[in-house]
Amino acid sequence: MSTAFATEPDARAQRAATDRATDAAAITVRALAGLGEIRPGDDLVDLIARAAAAAGGLHDGDILVVTSKIVSKAEGRIVHAADREQAITDETVRVVATRAHEGGVTRIVENRQGMVAAAAGVDASNTPDGTVLLLPVDPDASARALAAGLRERTGAHVGVILSDTLGRPWREGQTDVAIGAAGVHVVDDLRGGTDAAGRTLTVTMACLADELAGAGDLVKGKVSGCPVAVVSGLARTVGPLDLPGAASIVRPSDRDLFRLGTDEAVELGRRDGHEAGFARGRAVGQAEGFASGYAEGVAAARTEALMARSRVSPAVPAAEATTC
Asked: What one-character DSSP code corresponds to residue 194?
């Protein structure tokens, strides 16, 4: 098995491209059938292990791509909410963009898990009327629990990806991405290596977790009733359970070039500019008002002094006083 993920960055990157090309002659992706409808409190480890056993079992290096919805259901993340919009508001940490349309308003927000997604990931599909489904509280922790349980139950050294469907900037349509991961190298960092022409790679980081999530969705589908897929042939990407999870691939705010929607960014600039201009104008006005008031006060004082002096009687000459 390749050690590309465990070595120093320069040595790792030099071999990474070759590793990706020679790792497996083929990659297979298959859906697991037979899980049935998931309810709060269900043991997903047991249900997935049974379904996998009926389909030939799990093997070292397999990666299970699990739809986050069934994890949310098993963890009881179903909440009563006649108004889905209120549930979205409750899960929102920061509004990125909003757009009104015939069906209502689409809100792109940062949610409690740190993800930027439409509707904060709140899902009203395939849930009873009057309820909505929230994302797992900690998707990485949920993935670790599944991976640990399946490793113990089956004896196979497997990894787990929790997937959810997201839209993407600049592109139409949606695709599945990883929102939780355990026992899987989520990124293949090729920086420092060279391409086929010998040029140094400076930014290339393949997001394996998202690639695996998308591959799993090709066989799971949205309405097929198969919420778990098994990817085989990428054993090199499977590792210990304490590897960084999917939270590590959320871009930090200081490197996020698209932190706001266009309209929101313009409005923020306008508001900040107005506030700065108002503050500047107030400071200048106060300074000018003080100067003007001071000048008027000095002039008024002088006038009052002259008027007071004119009201005082002039002194009587001494010679006139002695002749009376």
From this structure: B
**Which tokens sit at 26?**
């083929």
Dig out the tokens for 74 from the structure.
Answer: 């098993």
Contacts of 218 (CB under 8 A, 6+ apart): 29
Sorted by sequence, the CB contacts under 8 Å of residue 174 that are 6+ apart come out as 165, 166, 167, 168
Predicted pLDDT of residue 318: 45
- Looking at the chain, list the stretches that DSSP marks H as alpha helix, in order from N- to C-terminal side: 9-22, 44-54, 68-74, 84-91, 139-154, 208-220, 262-310, 318-322
Q: Which residues contact 19 (CB under 8 A, 6 or more apart)?
A: 2, 4, 236
The answer to whether 22 and 42 have CB atoms below 8 angstroms apart is: no
Joined tokens for residue 90:
């409750």
Q: Which tokens hold the place of 199?
A: 């040029």
Read off the tokens for 318: 């001494």
Distance, CA of 159 to CA of 144 (rounded, Å)? 9
48's tokens:
């997935």
Instruction: DSSP letter for 27, please.
Output: -
Q: Coil, strand, or helix at residue 3?
A: coil
The pair of structure tokens assigned to 296 is 């008027």
User: Cα angle vertex 256, ends 252, 262, to 5°?
Assistant: 145
| Cβ count within 10 A of residue 75 | 20
Dist CA 182 CA 142 (whole Å): 9
**How do beta strands 188-189 and 205-206 pair?**
antiparallel
CB within 8 Å of 155: residues ≥ 6 apart? none
Beta carbons within 8 Å of 49's beta carbon, 6+ residues apart:
58, 150, 153, 154
**Tens-place pLDDT, residues 175-217:** 999 999 999 999 998 888 888 888 988 988 899 999 999 999 9
- Show the tokens assigned to 86: 């209120």
